[in-house]
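Suppose you are handed a protein chain with no further information: no name, no annotation, nothing but its sequence. What can you learn? This example shows the usual starting point.
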Amino acid sequence: MTNFAHHDPVLAAELLALVPAPTRVVDGTLGDGGHAALFRARGAIILGVDQDPDAIGRARVRLGDDRIEYHQGSTYDPGTLDRIQGFGPDLILLDLGVSSRQLDDDRLGFSFRPGAALDMRMSRTGPSAADLLAEAGAEELATWLREYADEPKSRRLAAEIVRRRANHAFETSDDLVNAIRAALGPRSGPGDFARIFQAFRIVVNDELEGLERALPVFRDALRPGGSLAVISYHSGEDRLVKNAFRDWGSACVCPPHQMMCTCRGRPLGRVLTRRPIVAGDAEVARNPRARSAKLRLFQTDANGRAEE
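A reasonable first move is to predict its three-dimensional structure. Written in structure tokens, the prediction is:
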């Protein structure tokens, strides 16, 4: 539990350059506490949130209880959102996806290594990936594969899953990998497995819909002039964040053909990253997980809360 050598907070230098001195920080995906440690070293008080009980335990061992509070739960749950609002942050950071530790732990079932359980639950509660693969209909499976994995053969793979589960329940990574190979052909490989496993992880943890619901709550929880920073690893996540930030930074969000403005008529703040910030070659060489990371940042109006 005390070996943190491989944990390397993604885009840390870029984040600190954009938000150098926040005073009250919500680390909405605490993990091992890498980002939280950096901001606490600069004098901030931290609220660390994670739904993985092991992550909370590791972070507590690493960081102790000095100027940091811990909250176990999904960042998108109503109780968590209430606590974030009560904390009064001037920075909320979301480092989405799963950590390297979670990917390396076969018990959690996030990887496609042989024999790993088909679990994928960050909170260890609720339906697992195995449950979804056993219960979802072919149309629902195809929709997930199309929308979250950009899989062109989504219907074929969904039908293959339904056919196979009739004879044998999906229990380990091998069951899903074999279905992928059967549907996509012998040239399918690790890139396809990673993409499709990620899609089911997103469904299991309600990641995209939860993020979409929570983004405006995060925005409104910030103090005037506060910042919402999101590091994403999936195109769907990044698209949601980009579109939300763009709308919030626009003075008018009425339909283009509408003659008279009937919306709020003012921006709610400004987008500090017109294009996402990505990791440089040196960071990617040091931390391959950073390769797909994209950082976007929105700053609320300094004259008041960014409420619509």
